[in-house]
Every structure is written in structure tokens, then in C-alpha cells.
Amino acid sequence: RPCRLPSLEVLALSTTGSLACAVAASVALGVWPQIAPVTCAADERCAELDGAIDRTFHGKIAFALGILLLKEVVGLIKAVADGMRDLARTSAKSRRWLAPLLLSAILGVLICFELELFLSDGSSLAHSAHGRPVQTLRYAEWVVNVPLFIVLGACCFMGRPLKEVLPPLILTEVYMVVAWFAVVVHSVLLSIVAVVVTFVLYSLATLMMLRGVRAFWRESAPDSPG
Fold first, then answer.
1. Helix (H, G, I), strand (E, B) or coil at 28
2. How far apart are the C-alpha atoms of 104 and 136, rounded to whole Å?
3. For the residues 140-144, what does the mean pLDDT come to?
4. 129 φ, ψ to 5°?
């Protein structure tokens, strides 16, 4: 029986699991207090730079996103009403509401993020990267919204199964957190390691997504639009 190499998903998830175990072991051994990021409020130069940022544009962005959210909510209500009508007629479930629901959730998270930066002084939500402010809340927003975008594009628009989307989604979540750590950690060596890990996980997630796109094109009808 020929030897079979592990699939890309198994290899990537195994690597991610090993990294997670290594991080957990490091924290358990007490390394975290020595490498923990410093908040911007605790760094005088960082707090000064962060306080000088004009935050009025965050309020303008939140207002514009609110208009888009109203449009998506109206579309969501219509999609739910159409789905209930189709269910009453044919007893067939419709998921046309899923795309506007995800878009509404994405816009809602973005609005909360922009309003938080607009209404707060920012320093308590930022970390210092060698004296420069890094908006940690921005990374938190990516951790929430990027998976929603992936599900929206892969599951709603391309019709890919969730089990196919889940591995690259998990890797994406992990490398975004590692990328944040690479920016805010004060150890140059750890920063380099985190950057390398970020690019490795990004490459694996991208390969998985490209394979899903190729599968979508193979399964699509030749006369389908686009």
C-alpha cells in the first residue's frame, strides 16, 4: 500500500495546534510577563502620539456605514419575508437571508469599531510598538469580520460547504493574532519569528482558498454567468 502524504488541511491544522501548544506552554512557564505588550497609556511617547491623532473622521465613517447598514437591514427584512413566503408555498427552506445577515453583521461591527475610536481617547485601546501607537481594536475587528467575509464569499456566493471553508478560516484567525503580536512585542527575535509564522499560515490559508475557487470553477456550469 503506497504511503500517502497528509492533506494540506491536516498539515496546516497540525502546525497551528503545535504552535498553540507552544504558546500555552510558554505562558505556563511564566514567559508572558517578560514579553507582554505595553499599553500605549503606559508609554509617554506613544500616548502623546496617539492623543495627537484627529478622530473626527472615525465619526464620519461610522455615519456613512450606518447608511449602508440601513440599506442592508431593509434587504434582510425583504429576504426573510420572501423566504417565509416561499416556505409557505413550497415547503422548501430558503437561505437568501444569509448574505444580507452577514453583511449587516459586518457593517454593525465596523460601526461599533469606528464609534469606539471616535468617542474614546484611544490610548487605553492601543499598544505601544517602540513608542508608536498600534490600534489593537483594529485587529480585534479583523478577527471578527474577516471570517464573516470568508463565509460570505465562499458559502453564500460560491456555494462551498462549511467544512471546506473552516480550515483556512481557522488559520486566518490565528495568523491575524500572530501578526498583531509581531507588531507589539518588544523582542526583535520574537517579532521576526512571529512574522515568519504569519506568512507561513497566510500562505497555507491562501492555498486552501485557491483550491476551493478552482473546485468552484470546475463544478460551475459552462454557461453560468461570470
1. helix
2. 23
3. 91
4. -115, 85
CA atoms 135, 140, 145, 151: torsion sign: positive
The answer to whether the CB of 199 falls within 8 A of the CB of 3 is no
* pLDDT band (50, 70, 90) for residue 16: low
Query: Phi and psi for 135 in degrees, rounded to 5?
Result: -75, 95
Summarised one tens digit per residue, pLDDT across range 46-77 is: 888 887 888 888 889 999 999 999 998 998 88
pLDDT value at residue 62: 92
Taking the C-alpha atoms of residue 63 and residue 130, their distance in angstroms, rounded to an integer, is 33
Helix (H) or strand (E) holding 180: helix 162-184
Which amino acid is located at 197 in the chain? V
Cα 127–Cα 133–Cα 136 angle in degrees, nearest 5: 45
Where do we find the cell 417565509? 84
One-letter amino acid of 185:
V
Query: What type of residue is 36?
Result: A
**Distance in angstroms (rounded) separating the CA atoms of residues 171 and 179:** 12
Q: Which residue has the higher pLDDT, 172 or 219?
A: 172
Question: Taking all residues of the chain, what is their mean pLDDT, rounded to a whole number?
Answer: 80
Region class of 140: left (phi > 0), else alpha (psi between -120 and 50), else beta:
alpha
| Contact assessment for residue 38 and residue 186, using Cβ atoms and an 8 Å cutoff | yes
Count CA atoms within 13 Å of residue 5 on its CB side: 5
pTM of the model as a whole: 0.76
Mean pLDDT over 91-116 rounds to 83
Quick check: 50 and 133 in contact, CB under 8 A?
yes
